[in-house]
Each structure stands twice: as C-alpha cells, then as structure tokens.
Design goal:
17% helix; DNA Polymerase III, Chain A, domain 2; 9-stranded antiparallel β-sheet; 367 residues; 3 domains
Amino acid sequence: MKIICHREAFLSACQLASTAVPSKDVKPVLRNIKAEATPDRCTLMATDLELGLKMDVGSVEVKKPGTALLPAQKIIAILREARDDQLEIQADADAITIKGKNLEFDLPVEDPALFPDVPDFDEEKCHEIRAGDLREMIKRTVFACATETARYSMTGVLWELDGTDARLVATDGRRLAMTQGLAKPVGGHATTGMSTVVPAKAMGVLERNLADDDEIVKVHIQANDLFFKTDCSTIYSRLIEGRFPDYKAILPKSAALKLLLSAGAFMAGVRQAAIMTDDETKKLNFHLDPGKIVLQAQAALGGKSKVEMAVDYDGPSISTSFNPAFLIDMLKTMPAETELQLELNDPARPVLFRAGSSYIYLVMPLT
C-alpha cells in the first residue's frame, strides 16, 4: 500500500477512528487502525469487538492499493507533531514508512489478515434522521447514563423508533433524560417490542461523526446489534443485554406546582451556589418562595453560599435539595435563552424540567 495524504485531514480521520480502539487490552491487534486503499478511496477501520467504525477518508491519493495496520497511538502522534502539509505512507512486508520533506518514521508491521472484519451497512429497512437533530438528542441524554457496572442495563441509551417518532432515554436511577425528534421510516423499520439499549461509548462515537447538520443518518436496529450510517462512515455496535427500566411508570402524570426559568440564569445561579459544595457535601438546597428562588450550599469544613434569583411565582413556599452536578449536566446542554418549565409535587418526589415539547429531565431530590 502507498498513499499520499493531507496531514490534517488524515489526522482528524485517525482521531475519529481511534474512538473505537479499545482502552483496555482485549487483543493486541485491536490497538491498530486498519487502512484499506483501493484505486478510488481510502477507508479506515477500528473495533473493540463490541463497537466498530469504518470511515472513508478524503484528501488521499492512492498510489498503490493495499491494506496496512497502523498503530493508533503512534500514527496519531506522528501526524500531530509533523508540520508537512502532505505525507507519504507506505506499507510493505517489512515496515510501515511515513515520509515528509524532512522526516521519516519506520513502524513495525502486523498482518492485516489478523484484524477482525467490521460489518457493512447493507440493510434496506432503516430510519433516517437529520444529523443536527440527532446530535442534539444524543447530547441531551447520554450524560444521564449509569457508569456503575452493577447498573449494566442503564449504561446506555434506550432507542425507540416508531413511525416518524424517534425517542432517546437515559437514566442512572437518580435522574432521567428523555428527548424526542422526527425520523423517516424506510421499509417498515421499527423497534416495537424490543429493548434497544445502545452503549454510551457507541453514542459518543456517533456524535463525533455528525459534522454536517443537514446530513441524513440511517439507523438500522436488529435484535442484538445496530448500525448507523452517514455519508462517509458506518458505525456498528452490539446492544446492551437486559431490560431497561419502565421509564413511563416513573414520569409524573401531573404537577401541583409549575414555574418558568431561563436556562442561562438558572445555570449561573446553580454554579455560583455550588462553589461551596465539596466531595462530602454534594448538596444544593433549593428554597422556592413567592417571587424568588434561594440556592444555598455549605461545605463540610465551613463556609457557605447563598444565591437569590427572581422568578414569577406566587405559590406556597417549598424546600428541597439536589446534587448540583445533576442540574449542571442538563443545563449545559441548553442554549442560555432556553425557557425551562419546572414541575414539582412535593419535596420528597422527583422534580421534572421540560424544554419545549421534546425534552424532559427528571431528577431525584436528596434526603
């Protein structure tokens, strides 16, 4: 194999591909990115056996078709530190050689035949979603996934595709994020009756591959795995086994108290008050009185904060407490001008935030 690549474009592609490289040593060969050059294109592949990414790279001139395994960490480091606009990458039986005007690197070669296949997207049934909409849906849910292995079925995002509705849900048992968007069904594709939980890592890889807002992303979900396809990349992932919690049973059917908040102003107030929290006291006290919200925190070793916000509210006084990080995680996904509706029944029950008709965020209070 011999190619001439634009350094920055190839670096960007390798960095994207490396998101599918395993962080732990599953198999040594998986530390590589597989490059496959044909007369008309160059494709990069990476996998950790649960997740696979295949992407076409632009700005590459193929001088000699072939395949090679590129050590992910080394190739990215070389591409990042080099200053040439173009580099030559050549692989033969003895070594992989990277050349620029004043530099040359020889890397050990491994047999490309040892690298596992990354499946292709060749399904007729799918849902089509606008990339910009999908990226926002991922951003507003994936942060709420569980990270503890004991909550395995919650370590991903639930996908529900039914007709023109696409719904993403994530929870860690202490908070829940749900967002909805429009999707176009092709060939009768749907997830009805399936528990389709996509690993958080796959969602992150997908989000990083959504660069063009108007690009159409194809989604195909099967019993045990799924595919995402953009114009230049295919992402394959195994699904998480186990049943996702019945989130519909958790959502409040009504609210005794409702008020409107500006996301930007509320974010500023929460961040200011949270300065006085620490690892021992991850607690933000929330007091709602007529005309104002008072946010307070106190550090375990002394020191406290108090922040007041004016709000349009004339109901009864009520007090509750939250982990401020749970509020900040949600608020930082919102434009500052977003109008949030806060819904509450009593201090011991979850608080629900709505952003329009397409987003719900539920957070449990602290006792």
